[in-house]
Design brief:
The chain is α+β, with helices and mostly antiparallel strands. It is 23% helix and 33% strand. The protein has one domain: Cyclic Phosphodiesterase, Chain: A (Alpha-Beta Complex), CATH 3.90.1140.10.
């Protein structure tokens, strides 16, 4: 059986320009932590497209597709809290952004073409709801205990200068999941950013899964 990895496109907050915003989000998460299982700080992100289990061949096709994206950097602002009932996730919302919507739609369209799937098969299309998951395993009744002040979330400014292709895998400690960035692209030049902590890819490399 061919080996696959569970992948998704996302924007994270690990860059220096987002350090203050990330600290504010972490403080909010810590304050709300008694309500559920906090998402690890390193796992905080905004999903742009969930891809599911992807083969080595499809991984390379997705990288080629992302190479075609031509978009400029933009800013986002976080909004109020929200809740997904079925997965019991408490999340921080994002104010509407045309730039973010266009980027997500572009990534989804190119990903569908790369993976040869129909539009309806992509989980977060067309109902893209940008959010940052803060807590898991939050009981519905716990939401009523949050004060109005905290329900407003935080108003933090985030700068989106790049996005990445991430792998989701069980954490080595067998507690939760670990997200690993396999590749990243700059929105200013639409090419992989050569950072040591975000390795770029090459078709000359094996890139074994």
């Amino acid at each position: 059986m061919e080996r696959t990895r569970r992948l998704f496109f996302a924007f994270d907050f690990s860059t220096p320009e987002n350090a203050q915003a990330k600290a504010e989000i972490i403080r909010l998460k810590h304050t709300l932590s008694p309500l559920g299982q906090p998402v690890p700080n390193d796992n905080l992100h905004l999903t742009l497209a969930f891809l599911g289990n992807v083969s080595q061949q499809d991984y390379l096709a997705l990288c080629r597709a992302a190479d075609k994206i031509d978009a400029s950097a933009f800013s986002l602002r976080t909004a109020s809290l929200g809740y997904f009932n079925k997965p019991q996730i408490l999340w921080l919302g994002i104010h509407p952004s045309d730039e973010l919507q266009r980027l997500a739609e572009t990534i989804n369209t190119l990903s569908r073409a790369a993976l040869n799937i129909d539009k309806g098969d992509t989980p977060n299309t067309p109902n893209f709801l940008p959010h940052i998951s803060l807590l898991r395993q939050v009981e519905p009744g716990a939401i009523d205990t949050i004060s109005d002040a905290y329900k407003e979330g935080v108003s933090s400014s985030l700068t989106v200068q790049r996005f990445g292709l991430y792998q989701s895998a069980p954490h080595p400690t067998h507690k939760g999941v670990q997200y690993t960035c396999l590749n990243t692209w700059s929105l200013s030049i639409a090419k992989p950013t050569p950072k040591s902590d975000f390795p770029s890819y090459s078709l000359k490399d094996d890139h074994e899964l």
